[in-house]
Amino acid sequence: MTDRNDRWGALLSRANRGEAVAYAAFLQDVTPVIRTIVRGRSSAEAENEDIVQEVLLAIHAKRHTWREGDPVAPWLYAIARYKTADAFRRRKGTTQVPIDDLADRLADEAPGDPTAARDLARLMDGLDDRSAGIVRAVGVEGESAGEVGARMGMSEGAVRVAYHRALTRLKKLAGANE
Questions:
Q1: Closest to 93 (Cα-Cα) out of 51, 143, 55
Q2: Cα–Cα dist 87/38, whole Å
Q3: CATH code assigned at 164
Q4: What is the pLDDT of residue 1?
Q5: Is residue 61 classed as helix, strand or coil in its secondary structure?
Q6: Do the Cβ atoms of 151 and 141 come closer than 8 Å?
Q7: Taking every annotated instance into account, which residue ranges of this chain make up the domain RNA polymerase sigma-70 region (predicted)?
Q8: pTM for this model (two decimals)
Q9: CA quadruple 89, 93, 96, 99: dihedral sign
Q10: Is residue 8 part of a domain?
Q11: Does residue 119 surpass a pLDDT of 90?
Q12: Which domain holds residue 25?
């Protein structure tokens, strides 16, 4: 690992001084490692190469942030980790798994508790309209805090705080009804 870090450090140092050949050699050396990191963190084979490209672009944009003399691998791994996590966030909820072959093995889901919706509605009556709307949008309908905030004229952070506080009030109301 030290030899690789030393090699990468020397190449990146030269690249940061403007040597295009050293930069090309650096990217050729690190790309297989990045590809392995992305594959290890992602199950979406079709998107892996796109994520690798995003990591390489981030390295290019942030190469000036690497401090000469520090090991390159931790800096590189952090960029790969963050870019992979960003890709997961962007695709949240869009994972598609074909289940046609598994349909006979999958058990039918029993319908949910028929009284749950009624109970939730009663609990939500104990909240103010804004809090109830936020809980309904984020917790029930699955909207993001950003979407709800844009619609309600609130910041994303304010929506998260209001949502958390409303859930705390709902929990207290549920405890009082037991």
A1: 143
A2: 10
A3: 1.10.10.10
A4: 52
A5: helix
A6: no
A7: 31-92, 123-172
A8: 0.49
A9: positive
A10: yes
A11: no
A12: 2-90
